[in-house]
Automatic annotation (TrEMBL):
Pfam families: DUF3833
Source superkingdom: Bacteria
Organism: Brevundimonas staleyi
Name of the protein this chain belongs to: DUF3833 family protein
InterPro entries referenced in this protein's UniProt entry, alphabetically: DUF3833
Length: 164
């Protein structure tokens, strides 16, 4: 497994406006978003909900995405802390590994995966997800999928809110 240090489940006191995934996503949350192609055309809209469990060493986040056509996708990520501000996450279902860390006030995850496109062809993609805290209970997530790691093909934009 991955090396990890302890999670601090309280937001960083020195940077209260920085997004920290283990602090934000362990509380129940809901969101809505859309997927756009490289030209800005909306391809799909969705709602998403989830939450997590955390202990001193690791966190597990689960999420359920429901697309407007009724398709439902469930994901679970195990998140480990490498050192303060650096994390590794593993998709529990398919083993994709993401690495992430603070970049200014935002938090950025990055991972590579093979995705099926067109008539069943598998192509290499790199995904970068940037989360920015808007206020203590609201965050924006922007995921950019790039073919071959450089050609942007889609953008997912999601607004997350803690449930009351």
């Amino acid at each position: 497994m991955f090396p990890f240090d302890n999670f601090d489940l309280e937001p960083a006191k020195a940077r209260p406006s920085a997004f920290e995934p283990h602090v934000f996503f362990w509380k129940p949350w809901r969101g809505e978003g859309q997927i756009r192609n490289a030209f800005g055309k909306v391809l799909r809209r969705y709602t998403v909900s989830g939450g997590g469990q955390a202990d001193e060493a690791r966190a597990r986040m689960t999420q359920t995405v429901v697309f407007e056509d009724g398709e439902t996708v469930q994901k679970a990520w195990e998140i480990l802390s490498r050192d303060p501000g650096r994390y590794v996450a593993r998709d529990v279902d398919n083993g994709i590994v993401a690495e992430g860390g603070q970049v200014g006030r935002s938090f950025v995850w990055s991972f590579a995966s093979d995705q099926t496109v067109g008539k069943g062809r598998t192509m290499p993609f790199k995904t970068t997800v940037t989360y920015t805290l808007i206020d203590r209970s609201t965050a924006e997530g922007v995921a950019v999928n790039r073919l071959w790691g450089w050609l942007p093909v889609s953008r997912l934009t999601t607004l997350y809110r803690h449930q009351v």
